[in-house]
Amino acid sequence: MTAAPRPDSIAAETAYILARLGVPAAAFAEGAITVRSPISGEVIGRVAEAPAAEMSAAVGRAHAAYLAWRKVPAPKRGELVRLFGEELRAHKTDLGRLVTLEVGKIVSEGLGEVQEMIDICDFAVGLSRQLYGLTIATERPSHRMMETWHPVGVVGIISAFNFPVAVWSWNAALALVAGDACVWKPSEKTPLTALATQALFEAAAKKAGAPEGLSQLVIGGRAAGEALVDDPRVPVVSATGSTAMGRQVGPRVAARFGRSILELGGNNAGIVCPSADLDLVVRGVAFAAMGTAGQRCTTLRRLFVHDSVYDALVPRLKKAYGSVKVGDPREAGVLVGPLIDIRSFEAMQSALDRARAAGGTVHGGERARDDLGADARYVRPALVEMPTQAEIVCHETFAPILYVMRWSSFEDVLALHNGVPQGLSSSIFTRDLGEAERFLSVEGSDCGIANVNIGPSGAEIGGAFGGEKETGGGRESGSDAWKAYMRRATNTINYGRDLPLAQGVTFDVE
Ligand code: NAD
């Protein structure tokens, strides 16, 4: 049997892919959430918002599944995640394409997002055989002290539009091997990729014989997110999105003594030093600042260029900005796709006006490719030469705007670098070991990610991911981020016949 040809329209192709991924047509045929492809602005699905009571019911189902799942040995839990990774491998092309259609990422970035999901599955499978606790020296004779890590319960996952499926998988893969169940509230802008991911997960769960209801998907907006945040049966809430969202979520979770993993906005910078390899800088800056149309939390937004190389570097950057191909992300050669929606375009234009008012010189930033759809918004990425780090530069505008500033003193540029409320990612371009090491030292970058001779974006899953200050302080993904999805018990065991007390305390009763 030959496969049906891929349809031409974006809506028809979306429906075709969703069917291939096992999502029933009824799931995106009608409902209050209208999904538009940013590529053309056309409607590609209508999805029902879950009724108000659904979040509580979903948490209940997840909790029931957790009670069984926590007793399954961790390496066996890893087998579920391994099977899910196999589903992702088998369907990488379709799911990556769906990311492109729903979010507007260029093809290699859509596929890269799914590869990131596969990578975290591999990581989590290995981790399922390595969850460990310490044995600690005790002052009491014939005693042993150790720590044990237990699953924590139901983990709530709230995700943002710009990594519609990878962010969920960073959390879910770790939570599942840790022995937790999950409830996912995806961005209301990206329910289709969430439905597809859930269908792939269900297929893996069936093969693995996992308890029913182990990973729940609840589609809705802020109200659904709030219901998840407030549910006392959810001990950990991992929330990815804007700092404004984190300001709401953090205190609400804390008010009921839950734990939150906050992954919020960034305002990432690069410092270009006199010794920097400028060829490398141009390439590194181009990807970090213009990639994903500036819609990554780690997008390079501020570039500090040393006086001695400013006139050599900035014209080259302007040239790259002027020549980068903006357009339909499905087309070969296009590097900058659309913004997610019209509101995002308006926020970008307003930021550029504020930058001009603060003395900035704006290159680019105008609407591009208005032939691709009245409701689609493409822009030429903006490079803005700023005389100072004005107030607007201290804000995260989720669009391709790069503010470029001069520096001459290393002390001053470090202060400017850290002089914003956010603390996600950072980079320095230098061949000077002293500068590189100072940037990575305690006096240097105050961010959760600090790089040398690469831009601030494009992290690998092996490292812990997250940032400080208004970025929220959470860590996900690699290293020991798994600990946030578990609870720790310290155990002391007395294998002797006496009962010595710690700190020399005596308490002898007759
Ligand atoms: P957003 O804050 O508008 O929405 C994110 C999610 O939070 C959505 O699912 C939304 O429904 C939900 N939400 C909003 N208010 C809520 C509330 N009061 N309670 C519960 N849930 C609520 O963000 P966005 O526009 O989708 O994404 C872009 C933002 O996300 C940028 O600021 C970007 O930097 C950030 N981001 C951060 C990371 C990171 O790891 N640090 C990764 C990706 C995106």
UniProtKB/TrEMBL annotation:
Pfam families named among the record's database cross-references: Aldedh
Tell me where in this chain the Aldehyde dehydrogenase domain is found.
32-488
Q: Name one GO molecular function term.
A: aldehyde dehydrogenase (NAD+) activity
Q: Which UniProt keywords apply?
A: NAD, Oxidoreductase
Task: State the active site.
Answer: 263
Relate the assembly described in the record.
Answer: Homotetramer.
What name does this protein carry?
aldehyde dehydrogenase (NAD(+))
Q: Which organism is it from?
A: Oharaeibacter diazotrophicus
